Amino acid sequence: MPVKKEPFFWLTLSSAGIILAFILLPLVHVIAAPSMESLWETFNDKDVRKAIWLSISTSGLAAIISLVAGTPTAYLLARKEFPGKRLVESVVDLPIMIPHPIIGIAILSIAGRNHWFGRAIQSIGVEIMGTTTGIVTVLTFVGLPFYINTVKAGLESIPERLEKVSRSLGASQTQTFFRVVFPLAWRSMLAGLIMCCARAISEFGAIVIVAYHPMVAPVLIYERFTAYGLKYSQPVAVWLILVSLALFLGLRFITLPSASKAKTG
Amino acid sequence: MPVKKEPFFWLTLSSAGIILAFILLPLVHVIAAPSMESLWETFNDKDVRKAIWLSISTSGLAAIISLVAGTPTAYLLARKEFPGKRLVESVVDLPIMIPHPIIGIAILSIAGRNHWFGRAIQSIGVEIMGTTTGIVTVLTFVGLPFYINTVKAGLESIPERLEKVSRSLGASQTQTFFRVVFPLAWRSMLAGLIMCCARAISEFGAIVIVAYHPMVAPVLIYERFTAYGLKYSQPVAVWLILVSLALFLGLRFITLPSASKAKTG
Amino acid sequence: MIRIEQLSMDLPDFSLNNVDIHVREGEFFALLGPTGAGKTLILESVAGVGPVHSGRIFVDGAEITRLPPERRGVGIVYQDAGLFPHLNVEKNIAYGLRYQKKTEKKRLDWVKWLMERFGIAPLAGRSVENLSGGEKQRVALARALSVKPRVLLLDEPLSALDPAFREDLRNLLKELHSQLSLTCLMVTHDFSEALFLSQRAAVLNKGGVEQCGGVKDIFNRPASPFVAHFVGMKNVFPACGENGQVRVDCLNLSMPSNGRPEPKYAAVRPEHLLLLERKPVQDNQFGLFPAEIRGMVDYGIFCEVLLDYQDQTLVAAAAKSALMSMGLDAGAKVWVEIPQDRIHFF
Amino acid sequence: MIRIEQLSMDLPDFSLNNVDIHVREGEFFALLGPTGAGKTLILESVAGVGPVHSGRIFVDGAEITRLPPERRGVGIVYQDAGLFPHLNVEKNIAYGLRYQKKTEKKRLDWVKWLMERFGIAPLAGRSVENLSGGEKQRVALARALSVKPRVLLLDEPLSALDPAFREDLRNLLKELHSQLSLTCLMVTHDFSEALFLSQRAAVLNKGGVEQCGGVKDIFNRPASPFVAHFVGMKNVFPACGENGQVRVDCLNLSMPSNGRPEPKYAAVRPEHLLLLERKPVQDNQFGLFPAEIRGMVDYGIFCEVLLDYQDQTLVAAAAKSALMSMGLDAGAKVWVEIPQDRIHFF
């Protein structure tokens, strides 16, 4: 491009550079800071392994619950027009905007004995406070919007016409879903699962209210930090970052082909 | 629609109902639980007002920093094609996926004396740990991706052709930005500011590491919860929810016209 | 075979009012109308994949208004083919056979036969994404016919195709219709397609039926100014009749009424207006008058010529080479002749 | 006035190779070519808003290759008008005047004059979103001319318009060009636009210039099979010449060479092929042979007729009513006559 660059161009470039440095510098340092030795030691620490595993398993469970409960809702929002649709969409987005400790407080409030819902679930033996159930509930609450929004966008990109043709060929709506919609939407559903999982793994503020114990990884990191200081929390952080990055790369990998398709098409 | 409904249809409807209940029930309860009296009392509590104000002001500052630093970057990502663009986009998205306490630890790590950056800023008197500066840094870190992604999408919807025409008419790139791009993009920039603000207000995990004091509202709520229990944290939560909801409604209000336009256009 | 009774629907930006249509067994029926006239909505209501607010739909004498689409026995082919992008050609065609009571072998034979019949056997394993428009429509047709529907619905099946492919597929549709004695209901905005393919037609305008009948009849004898314009009779003038004569006052024309005593309009096709460089010798000729060329609209090889005569605008059509050899351009004066037998009164 | 020298660019899915174009002062020059031939890229490189990988561009003798767009004095009008949606008609037109050394009053007068000249004065306060396509292009033209550019670049200015508006704007462009003695460089894929508007033209194909010269010259004497097809000479056959004769072997034609001794191709326009129902009486006529109609492509009032003669395919064009009155359809046998003076050798 032989046209001379304006100051404007250099401004955009330097602002991008500053932002990249701002994001990468702390993250790279926190990964690079601990010695291999301390990383290895942390890896052999039973508590750390347990916490990371609890983080992964509860987040995964939250993602699966989102899949089961969220897919039909995403389909409804992608396909049907109805009065109040924007309101429903707003409610689905709500958990993104609510401060994290409040989410924990809200969930605890209705799980307690002074709310009919709390009494109902306690009578069948479900306890929220300080249990894995509670953690999964919190993580589903924060992860669900990410799943629904991702899958909704994916479903919207499938022409409704294909479903109409399928039904005219003799398939019921359920059969149409599994033979036409699912094969075309599984990629966005997988992306939604990962988004949901990643959001769930990163949660701390709501969990720390509902269940300090059993300890998920972010809580463990927080505890190590408050109890022993920065240096002792860093190795645990590295392991959790690696899990997050793996999810993140998986997501990029899954969305990459469809994004490049959208560009050329 | 006289065609008979399938079980599939009722499935989507009931799943949507369950999800709405799951999200709304706890939030409505947490708002409705405290008595007017305790709400008023909390409102008169100096600490509460100070914390909420700190939350609002630091989030607002983070949003403004995002505006200044993020707008050129969003413009670059929306307009230019360059090798490694996807990588830059991935880095910008990173803060969304990193567990919140780790963000705090990462920022603290490079702000300390055993990192050149920490020594550099401390030598000019900038302290991160336990300061408002630290809070703003953390909130900028978590809010920036939301601002950049929103503005980038907004800029992409403005035809580049308009800028080309403007320049052929004698306007420089900077003049073009202020006379063409900004008037068409200010709505998405405002939406980006609000998104960034809302994300920042909801942050807890990263702040609690970097700066337990001065107390932002989520930290105050957490402290009241751990020190005095659920009942004493709820009134504070109500006030913070109201702030979040105001932002949320503002966002919906701003994005509504452009969304309906996109539908008919 | 298909009977639509008092079909109505009310959508935010469109409404359909009490449409009655009857398609006979084995007939090729065309639903004509401009874009946005509600043609596709009618088609989808027959297939059961669109909204119906009131009215009833019968196929083969049985009411199907509330039947789910998969139990209606109605095939549908859309303008954009609507092939399943995740299935190859063969699997697209075989899609509906799972719901038919047939042995695996019979199914395979039937799909094979269909692909042979539609000339797409060599494409069997190909992804549908890379097919040409014409090939896609062939696959869509084969797929719709695979389940032997009682009725075939066609939604502008030719519109998205290049002119060359269009003719191909048009011939194929004509063949299929006569060979398989299919009952077809086709939506189109192109009258020449209807003229070629269908026996009867209905012209829709603003959510209502404007004229219904034999397609040649509509073409030659439109019953309203809208239909006249739609079938290409672009010159429409008010007319009146008395004393065994019909008159077009604005053109100073008068002729025997021939048993059509009360016409309201007279219409002529652009290609039936003759353009002459100078006044012919025999002076007392019928329908001859001077006009000025206001402009020309270029359609490639041929032009539409807009003519001003007194307060009237006439539209003529002529080959560009003829216009060039006459040296005609905007502003030129010409003589226009309207042959008496080309005027349609209604 | 505009001189483009050895312009090249390499994009992921397109490349432009060493294009040389020279537009003289006051000339209307057309850049012709099919979609994707790189026409708009050339235009944008002149305006300074597109990439240039090598080559040089001069306007008025001064090199502008590395100049920012706002200092080039080049106006540009895009196919979709590219109006600023947040400004009304008047403000769109006045946009560039801020960078001109003029008093406020002079600016207002000038904008007023422009709006009068372009017939858009009544729209001054209107939002540009609700204008018709033709009105939008008028505003875009007025805006481009408001800053008195040395050169006006037009990117398919007529393509997005309805046929009726198209003629309007075409006439306006012609008027403007002669009245203001503008230097115009227009990109188009429609040869008839170039024929009407421009004096000289260049035909682009696959990123290179295929033929350049007077536009009538290109129309009548295309120099390559690509250009022949592009200007509508759809019948192209190999030819050869010897002993003062030129021959088209595949059609068994032979005639005096008239000083064009070594032609490689012979070409005829479809509208110059005559279709006859039966063999005419005088038998020894030139260029007369029997053919079979393979198909017809319907273009509304008129048809292209595809003809098979031995191994060759010929394309003729005729009015649909003429074809109908002859009763011709696919499969029919006809006689085809090629008038000797209609054949172009190159």
Automatic annotation (TrEMBL), chains A, B:
Chief localisation class: membrane
Transmembrane segments: 7-32, 52-78, 90-112, 124-148, 232-254
PROSITE patterns the UniProt entry points to: ABC_TM1
Pfam families tied to this protein: BPD_transp_1
Cellular localisation: Cell membrane
Entry keywords, A to Z: Cell membrane, Membrane, Transmembrane, Transmembrane helix, Transport
Entry GO CC: plasma membrane
Membrane-protein topology: Multi-pass membrane protein
CDD domains according to UniProt: TM_PBP2 (cd06261)
GO biological process, one term: transmembrane transport
Domain ABC transmembrane type-1: from-to ranges: 52-253
Family: Belongs to the binding-protein-dependent transport system permease family.
Name the record gives this protein: Tungstate/molybdate transport system permease protein
From TrEMBL, chains C, D:
Gene Ontology MF terms in the entry: ATP binding; ATP hydrolysis activity
Record's keyword annotation contains Calcium: no
A GO BP annotation: quaternary ammonium group transport
Pfam families in UniProt: ABC_tran
Chain ranges of the ABC transporter domain: 2-231
Superkingdom, natural source: Bacteria
Keywords in alphabetical order: ATP-binding, Nucleotide-binding, Transport
Signal peptide from the UniProt entry: none
Protein name as annotated: Tungstate/molybdate transport system ATP-binding protein
